[in-house]
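Chapter review: from sequence to fold.
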Amino acid sequence: MKRLSALIFFCTLSFQTVAQLIVNRVDINQLDIEYCQLICEYPGLGGKARIYVDYGQADFREGLNSELRSLNAEGEPTERFLTVMQAVNFVGKQGWEVVSFQVTHAGSGSSSQFIYVMRKKRRG
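The token string follows.
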């Protein structure tokens, strides 16, 4: 009976996942915020996207871990996202939804910037 209880307990724990959106080593899902901006910059042809999350913190592009990246099993950042949609889908899986977006271009053949306003998904 004890083994069955332990098995049920550990199975229950394994199915309970808590979404985490880590920005500069801060889980912003735990903060008292409702909106954030997902700012995606492309340096030009062939470059990987640089993706930042502005949730109201100062200097959101500054710091060692300023770019948004998913985390591996050890909690370390992975490679950069290759595309904007990879990042948007990742943030969506962490409990956020797109409210609006805009695209800006710095000039012909140069960088583009995609800005997504994200909102925490409502529970219930």
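Two observations follow directly from the output. The longest helix spans residues 2-15. Strands lie at 22-23, 26-27, 35-42, 50-54, 96-105, 112-120.
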